[in-house]
Amino acid sequence: MNLAAARGGSSAPVAGEKRMKPRLIPAILPAAFILILAISSGAVPRAAQQAGKSGQGASASAKDAIPFPQVSRITAEEVERLMKDNGNVVIVDTDDPEAYAAEHIKGAVNIAYDPTVEAREQDQLLSALPGNKMIVFYCNCSHEEDSAPMVMEMWELGYDHDKVKALAGGLTRWEQLHYPLVGTDIDKDTQKGY
Amino acid sequence: MQIQTQCKIPAIGVASSNIVHYATGYVQKYQTGMPIRYVSVPFPFTGQPKAVDVGYVSGKDMLTGQPLMTAVVNALTSPLTAEEKLSGKPPEEAAEPRLLPPNTEENLRVMFEDKEWTDFNTIVLPTERRVAEMLKGTSHKPDEVIKTINITGGARQLTVEKVAISAVMAGASPEHLPVILALATQAPFGNSTSSMANMVVINGPIRNKLNFNCGTNAMGPYNRSNAVVGRAFTIMSKTAGDLRNNVNAWETLGNTMQYNNQCYGENEEALPEDWAPLHVEMGFKPTDSVVSVGTGWSSIASVGASQSIYPTHHLMRDYISSFCASGSAATVVIDPTVAGLLKDVHGFKTKAQLSEWFSQNVTKVNASYWGNGVIQSTAVPFALAGLEPYASWRKLPDDALIKPFINPKAIHVVVSGGKVQTMWFVTDFGIRRGVKIDDWA
Asked: Do B79 and B157 share a domain, yes or no?
């Protein structure tokens, strides 16, 4: 994702330039003007970005380190208990809409984690989540690589650190415990409900 | 795209006529590696009677002039054209140099405007010498990447040097650079078809050090630091964010607040006792210098002086109720005299108490809440998924009153102004956590 190497500009004046004011030449010529941006040389194709999704987590995983250690985790057991006890918890699925439609924790809403989207665009969704409830983000990934960044984004929006957490083990752990799931890929007959 | 590649089902896109060339332009065409064919219908279709939308479907494709459904079938079945068979990088992706060749000032100004690298006010041209001088305002290296900005079709790295260039263009001095670099972590500014704007709030000792205006005319064109820092945010957002009119900037009316992003300082010295500055409420130390960015659309002024017959916070409540309440966000900017009234006369001992009061007392007619387009795209999916309170609100009668500002922490209070009038603004701006300026010195 690095920018292409910057290239120096020609020091020669533009040939045939008729509008150039002679008295300005000394002031202008010694200093080539700097472009603000390289229109395309810095652009990373979105497909490549998507391929890099969860890259930070994957890298950390390879080193046996938990990514985003500053993000509090909550166990699936605790979440299930909260859901049963008083329902004072909001579950947020961070997978893409197709995956969410296929399978998600019962009662979860979907706010997909997409590192290619400007944070401000997602803020409208994230900040609509109630501030007086526990909010738990989960992903279908091994070490909360997608859910943990969403937790941190919630902090940026002013949500209390102790009220926004990532589900440890994500969807996989929830499935292992046979807790309720819904979606087009879920066999309703084998699911227990609340 | 997924339908085509994964399900092996031919697919096309349908885009409204106002933005279809965005969809068919190179950035979208190549971002997923293959072009998608489009047909186009008139705009707007939202808010229209059903008969109008049906007419669009039975009408003509805005791109080809064919009957829409004929165009759909043709797009799905006709062989690839020579252009569609092309592979490799599109011609538009040719790299541009870091340095421009020398030219006259006049020609360069024209070039900068042609490329939309300006806000169309006169800029200071960013020569190497000027940018090098600007970079003396920070200890950070020029090639340090501040953030990667996602632009249409890809991403771009915003470096310290590029921000310094924007700072030069905006007319800033090296001592402004740490503020502008901190601001760059929040770039680009909000850009939406719904004509967003931003608010930049300065807190901490830097206000006095750089003489930011926190007093009379704090939000007006009367101060250099307020002017150049706010403007730099616009220039870096437009350039690094690649925001070009009708190319990828689609604010239908635009917003004049985008020229300066309402950059002002909080009048911390005039805060009532126990009213904490904005950055302290966010968890920073009072001695930290912090810049915070809000994003929203609207601002309503009190216009006249506060009246004893109707408490000031009640009038604020009434005005706030006209906002859409997206994200429960509001920011109230008040003169110190109003802050004094609210504390001493009406008993709000802290800003948080005032925010809580707004959360509990701002009401909105249910139909009006759901009648907003932003709410439709944010709260409706939540309601359909059963998330409260949205699910229950959806079942209420149209004329029911709801309290849509459910999160008092999203309601900010900022004290600014010169104690000239009991004046205030209520806005729908949501402010993200601030950024420490000292980290960019």
From this structure: no
Other Cβ atoms closer than 10 A to B21: 15
In a domain, B163, yes or no: yes
Q: How confident is the model at residue B6 (pLDDT cuts 50, 70, 90)?
A: low
Residue of A nearest to B198 (CA): A120
> What's the alpha-carbon Rg for chain A, to the nearest Å?
25
Q: Is residue B129 within 8 angstroms of chain A, CB to CB?
A: yes
Question: What is the predicted pLDDT for the residue at A55?
Answer: 39
Report whether pLDDT(A120) > 80: no
- Residue B258 in domain: yes
Task: Say if B327 is an interface residue toward chain A (CB within 8 Å).
Answer: yes
Residue B386, in any domain of the structure: no
Q: Is residue B379 part of a domain?
A: no
Kindly state whether residues B170 and B32 are assigned to the same domain.
no
Going along chain A from its start, the domains and CATH numbers come out as 17-194 (3.40.250.10)
Q: Give the contacts of B414 (CB within 8 A, at least 6 positions apart).
A: B201, B266, B278, B331, B332, B333, B334
Of A18-32, B76-90, B115-129, B296-310, which range is least confident? A18-32
Domain end: B32, B58, B93, which one? B93
Condensed to tens digits (0 to 9), the pLDDT of residues B328-360 reads: 999 999 999 999 999 999 999 999 999 999 999
How far does the CA of residue B306 sit from the closest CA of chain A (Å)?
A: 30
Q: Report the distance separating Cα A46 and Cα B64, nearest Å.
A: 29
What is the complex's ipTM, to 2 decimals? 0.81
pTM score: 0.84
Nearest residue of A to residue B100, measured between CA atoms: A33
Nearest to B104 among A10, A24, A46 (CB): A24
Domain count of the fold of chain B: 2
Domain membership of residue B327 as a residue range: 110-363+403-440
**B233 lies in the same domain as B276:** yes
Å from A48 to nearest chain B CA?
Answer: 8
Given a cut of 60, is residue A39 above it in pLDDT? no
DSSP B93-130: G----SEEPP--HHHHHHHHHHTT-S-SS-----BHHH
- B95 and A41 within 8 Å at the Cβ level: the answer is yes
